[in-house]
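Input chain follows. Return C-alpha cells only.
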Amino acid sequence: MTSSTRVEDAVLLFVGGPLDGRVEVREARHGDPLPVVTHVHLHGGPKVVHRYDLQSLTGSAGVYHLRVRTSRDDDAAAEPSTAPDGA
C-alpha cells in the first residue's frame, strides 16, 4: 500500500476486456465499490458495452471480472427497434 492510499480506500483491479490490467483506487468517501461496472466505448461505429462484476477479496480490495456475453445479450442487440414510424 502506498502512502497516498488510505486504509479505508478500496484497491480494484479489472480483468478482461478493454479495461484489462487497470487498477483503480476508490476513495472511502465514495462508499463501497459498486457490484457491477458498465464500460461504454463510443467511437465511429456502434457503441460497445462491457460489464464487470465485482469479486471482493478483502474489505479493501476487489477484482472486477469481465462478464461473459450470453445469447440473451446477443438476441437483445439483434432485435429491431419497435419505435413508432409516425404513420
